[in-house]
Amino acid sequence: MTVYLIPLLAIGALVSCGVYLLLERTLTRMLLGLLLIGNAVNLLIIAVSGAPGNPPVHGRGSPGKPTADPLAQAMVLTAIVITMGVAAFVLALAYRSYRLTAAEAVGKDPEDTRVAQLSPEEAADVDADPEEPYPDTDEPDELDALPGHRGSR
Q: Where is this region: Disordered (predicted)?
């Protein structure tokens, strides 16, 4: 089997750019990173599926060439559909985040910051406390509704 270096370098570049974009704090860059990694995986599946050959349809193609593997093509089509579903979900998250905060960047979570500043003894006490520190009330929380629509659900 012949391994071509250029597609493998392109796959490596796509994965590295995708990982870099996933580490950013803005949702559109995270989305672009997911799309780049999804395309890199599709290229990898096609690259390792073997040499090109006749189409996997009986009676088509030229004699002397092997038949192409249809499994790789089916896997890539499935991966494309899954990637588009994940992209739609991340776009919905970005839209919702923008409508709530009017900013695209994901900020630091105040609760994570508070827990990170606790000493190990305080963290053990918090974990051992069976009572719920933040009781649930029927009052609307900050993120329950869009700004300007506090009372509606």
A: 105-153
